[in-house]
Each structure stands twice: as C-alpha cells, then as structure tokens.
Amino acid sequence: MDKSKVVNRRKNYFIDKNFQTKFIVRFCLLIMLASLMTGALVYYLNRQTTTVAFENLKVVVKSTADFILPILLEVMVVVTFVIGLATIAITLFTSHKIAGPLYKLKVELEKMKEGDFSSPVRIRAKDQLQKVASEFDEMRLRVNNSVGTLKENWNPIKEELSRLQREAKSEEEKKSLLSSIEQLDSELARFKTN
Predict the structure, then answer these.
(1) Where do the structural domains in the chain lie, given as residue ranges?
(2) Do 177 and 165 meet the contact criterion of CB atoms below 8 Å apart?
(3) CA geometry: angle 8, 14, 19, nearest 5 deg
(4) FRET label pair with 13: which of 68, 111, 148, 177, CA 20 to 30 Å apart?
(5) DSSP-assigned states of every residue in the chain
(6) Considering the chain, what percentage of its residues have pLDDT values greater than 70?
(7) pTM of the entire structure?
C-alpha cells in the first residue's frame, strides 16, 4: 500500500467542532423549516376541499386537510429524519473540506511563528482553499529564501565583525561588537530553512 495515501488520510472529521457543528445545525434547521412549510402549505391549500372516505365501515365526509393531516405528519417526520441524516453526512464532509485546510494553515502558521520555514504547505487535492494554500506556500518560500540568503551572507559579515572586535581599542567597543554578533547569531539560528 502506498504510504503517501495512508499519511494523507484524515482520521478525525470534526476538526473545528464549533464551526462544523454550527454549519451542520444550520442546514438541518433549514431542512426542518422546509418540511414544516411544505406541510403547512399542503394543509392550507386543502382546507376548502372535501374528501369522502370510509372510516369504521361508515361513509365520512371531511375536509381534505383534516383527512390528510395524520398522513402528512407521518410523511413529514420520516422525510425530515431521512433528509436530516443525509444533510448531516453531507455537511460534515463538506465542512471537513473547509475546516481541515484551515487547521493545516493554522498549524503551519504556528511553525512559522517559531521560525520554521522548512516544510512546504500542502493540503489534500480535493480540499477547499487550494489557492490560499498555494499563496501561503509561495510566501513561505520567499521568506525561507530570504532567511537562507541572510544566513549565507552572515558568515562573512560575522568574520569581519569578529576581526573588528579583536582590533577594537576599548573594552566597551569590543563588548558592543560581541553583543551584536551574538544577538544576530541567535536571531538567525531561530530560523529553520531548507
């Protein structure tokens, strides 16, 4: 089995529980509202008509609305339940394709905040936000290249500053140059580049 396929599979479909729950609940409420409106409309449009039916071996004349109300309620409950379950599944997977990349971008931002620009920003091919991830990775590459260039150019500058520090006349000048060298070394060492 191809390892890249195994690594790329998500195990958790609730990545951002708050966002995904609100997303799912809103769509389910929309389904319930549509079902109630449909039932109310059918009932309203049939209240002026009559229906003749046999109930308990008697011929009964009722308004069509009263006759179909129990059937209508049962159908609405079943349809709302079935469509509600389908809506939950579809919105879970759809919101997952949004929340997953957002989570990945957040993780990558945390790495960059710590100075790690070495790993590319990639999200799954079928997920949303492909363009955002691509732009994000382009930005990461630019920063990575800039920091890499700074690191490369730092060594000759560091050597020259060290030479100047050794040749400095006063102790204060030596300490100042040494402090600057150590500070820049420390800052550049924070960044992880490839």
Answers:
(1) 13-113, 119-194
(2) yes
(3) 120
(4) 111
(5) --HHHHHT--S-S-SSHHHHHHHHHHHHHHHHHHHHHHHHHHHHHTTT-EEEEEETTEEEEEEHHHHHHHHHHHHHHHHHHHHHHHHHHHHHHHHHHHHHHHHHHHHHHHHHHTTB--S-----TTSS-HHHHHHHHHHHHHHHHHHHHHHHHHHHHHHHHHHHHHH-SSHHHHHHHHHHHHHHHHHHHH-B--
(6) 94
(7) 0.60
User: Does the pLDDT at position 78 exceed 90?
Assistant: yes
Summarize pLDDT for 86-127 with one digit per residue, the tens: 999 998 888 888 888 888 899 999 998 888 888 888 888 878
What is the residue whose two structure tokens read 């990945």? Answer: 104
**Residue 144 in this model has a pLDDT that exceeds 80:** yes
132/169 Cα distance (integer angstroms): 54
**CB under 8 Å, gap of 24 or more: what pairs does 85-90 form?**
87/24, 87/27, 87/28, 87/31, 88/24, 88/28
Q: 125: buried, middle or exposed (CB in 10 Å: 19+, 13-18, 0-12)?
A: exposed
C-alpha–C-alpha distance, residues 11 and 18, integer Å: 18
